[in-house]
Design brief:
The chain is of the alpha+beta class and 202 residues long. 29% of the residues lie in helices and 21% in strands.
Length: 202
C-alpha cells in the first residue's frame, strides 16, 4: 500500500512539473491582440477585423473527443454570429509534436470541415497562457468597448457536451445575445469541459 502511495506521489509531482503556472484573464479584463499563423499560411490578428463588435475565441484541438463532439456546434456559432459582428477565431494551442496535433493535421481538419473561420496555431502556447486556457474546447467571448476588448464570458459552449439535442443552456449564445442587446451577460463564467491542453515539456 505504501509503495502505491509513493508511486502516486511521484506521478503527481511529474504531472505538476509539466503544468504551466499562470492565471490568465478574468471577466472584465482587457484582452491584448495577437498575431498567429492560420492554416492557409497567412497571419491573423484581432486588429484585422475592423468592424467586429467582439469575438468568439475558442481554444480547440484535433484529437480530443470533446472537441470532436463540439465541432459542429463551433461551426454553427460562427455561422450564426459572424454576420452580427462576432466572428469566431479557433486556436490550437496543443503541443504540435503530439500525435494528431501537427500543422498538417490542423490543415486537414480545417479542409475536412470546410472551416469559414481561422484555425490558428499557437506554436509557443503563449496566447493560451495569456488567456488562461486549460481545456479543449475553452471559449472566451470578447466584447469591443471604448476601453478595448473586454472579456465578457469564459468557459464551455453549453451544458451538454455529449448530446446537442439535450442542451438546455447555451452559455456562449446567451452571452453574445445579451451583449448585442446591451444587457448583462446572464452567466459570465463556467467550467470548461474537455481534454487538457497538451503542454510542451518545460
Amino acid at each position: 500500500m505504501r509503495k502505491g502511495w509513493i508511486l502516486l506521489g511521484i506521478l503527481s509531482a511529474a504531472l505538476t512539473a509539466f503544468r504551466p503556472s499562470f492565471t490568465g484573464y478574468e471577466i472584465g479584463d482587457t484582452a491584448t491582440d495577437f498575431k498567429l499563423k492560420n492554416v492557409d499560411g497567412t497571419s491573423v490578428s484581432l486588429a484585422d477585423y475592423k468592424d467586429a463588435k467582439g469575438f468568439i475565441v475558442v481554444f480547440d484541438c484535433n484529437t480530443c473527443p470533446y472537441s470532436k463532439a463540439y465541432n459542429s456546434r463551433i461551426i454553427a456559432l460562427n455561422e450564426k454570429y459572424v454576420s452580427k459582428g462576432f466572428p469566431l477565431i479557433a486556436i490550437n494551442a496543443s503541443d504540435n509534436s503530439s500525435p494528431g496535433e501537427s500543422t498538417d493535421d490542423n490543415i486537414s481538419k480545417a479542409k475536412k470541415h470546410t472551416y469559414k473561420f481561422p484555425y490558428l496555431i499557437d506554436e509557443t502556447q503563449g496566447i493560451a497562457r495569456a488567456y488562461g486556457a486549460t481545456n479543449t474546447p475553452h471559449v472566451f467571448v470578447l466584447n469591443r468597448t471604448p476601453q478595448g476588448l473586454k472579456v465578457a464570458y469564459i468557459g464551455t459552449i453549453d451544458d451538454n457536451p455529449r448530446s446537442p439535442d439535450k442542451v438546455t443552456v447555451r452559455y456562449v449564445e446567451d452571452a453574445i445575445d445579451a451583449l448585442l442587446s446591451g444587457k448583462e451577460v446572464p452567466v459570465k463564467k463556467t467550467k470548461a469541459i474537455g481534454c487538457t491542453i497538451k503542454w510542451k515539456p518545460a
